[in-house]
Amino acid sequence: MIGRGLISTKHVVLAHIIPTRRCNLACAYCNEYDDFSRPVPTEEMIRRIDRLAYLKTSIVTISGGEPLLHPEIEKIIQRIRHHGMIAGIITNGYLLTPKKIVSLNQAGLEHLQISIDNIQPDEVSRKSLKVLDRKLQYLRDFAEFAVNINSVIGGGIRNPEDAELITNRAVQLGFSSSLGIIHDSSGAVKPLNRREERVFHEIRNYGKHSYSRLNWFQHNLARGKPNDWRCRAGARYLYICENGLVHYCSQQRGYPGIPLEKYTFADMEREYFSKKACAPTCTVSCVQKVSVIDHWRDPQADPVDVTPHRSQEIRKVV
Q1: How far apart are CA 240 and CA 186, in angstroms?
Q2: CB within 10 Å: which end of the chain, N or C, has fewer?
Q3: In what order do the strands lie in the sheet with 245-247?
């Protein structure tokens, strides 16, 4: 996938797709859920997956809301694998049972991520190790796909030291681990305080076990400093909401806001060369990691300046 991404910029590397906005939890820092939405019909999800295949997408990760609330999540995964795309899912883990894990195996799921926010549930988050440890043991015993446990700091998490214990438990169970600096409910991120920064540096020692390593994006965010990078959202990374619209990411819903069935390679080229005003303080690590593939090439311009003719001029410069 990385080799293909380096060779050509004319395809999507990673797409996040939402089969339902509804979630069974209500984490205080999250702005990506509701408690009432109906799941997207499976037939519509299949059409969207087919369109992502047309756009030559390499990886499709199913997110939410809580994606396991979709009654036919296995059929969606099967359709991703039918096209030869890598299939992943991000879940809160509450609905995982041995039977469900086996069904995900059979559907062809290749990776799963759970974010665990604390040891004991509180008013900020109920994604706690106390509640989810039995689910992690189920994954250890039954999962045939890769599992990553993401611990977090920031965003109002009360005890940042919990992230160390969560990381230790992930490693103990044989899973990969990662650490995220999370935003608050408005999508903003604040510099880490002294306690959080100490935990941040301590967990860096677990880098060899990490599925998504701590990188320079997080180092700057931890200090409240902006990052200088070329965000390729809308081109190399797509976020498709439950309404089937393409957005830059979960925190920039509404831009460009084009229906996926009408999204073209020309749209991808425009966004590839478009500078994103939100990039310096972005907390969306998956977009950052995908964009790193192209960080060394193709400078960007303000959106009003990006036309097919302007894109060709920029290409000539490099």
Answers
A1: 20
A2: C
A3: 176-181, 146-153, 111-116, 86-91, 59-62, 14-17, 237-240, 245-247, 256-259
